[in-house]
Write a structure and sequence with these properties.
The chain is mostly helical. It has 9 helices and no strands. Helix 1 (4-26) packs antiparallel against helix 2. The radius of gyration is 17 Å and the shape is globular.
Amino acid sequence: MSSGGEFHTDLERLLPNLRAFARSLTGNADRADDLVQETLVKAWNARNRFTPGSNLKAWLFTILRNTHISERRRRRWEVEDVDGEYAANMAVAGDQTSHMEFLEFENAFATLPPEQKEALLLIGAEGFSYEEAALMCGCATGTLKSRVNRARAKLSVKLGYGDVSEEAVPEREAKLSIG
């Protein structure tokens, strides 16, 4: 087992990734910060169960994802950001074109089913392998690949790039840059 200091340093190193994933799952900065905080507390309390040398990032993402799912179940009665009010208040640095492209992507991404969003984020944004992401999502690798492919295809159509079939886009070239 690594020392508490090493574990703490490793947690700090992964904070930006956790925040980005939490923000993508929740769509709300305050909820995302709360989710990351709860994830870190759970990870710290369970640090003796983490196997040194294994994938800390995957372990943390699994904790974060499971915590998010539990919270989502508790908050079923809350209204989602259907009218885009939260999204409209987000600020993005850069020129107007980049800002508008980001808003278009964000709006298109928001229309994806939760399972497809999650799959695309884990593979495209966080760089997990399909096998790692499938373990985190509790599904078969083929199921996860299908979710990613469907998400990419839907985004491609919604963003005006046309219909992208699985055969037409090699796996490595199809990875979207998110963030």
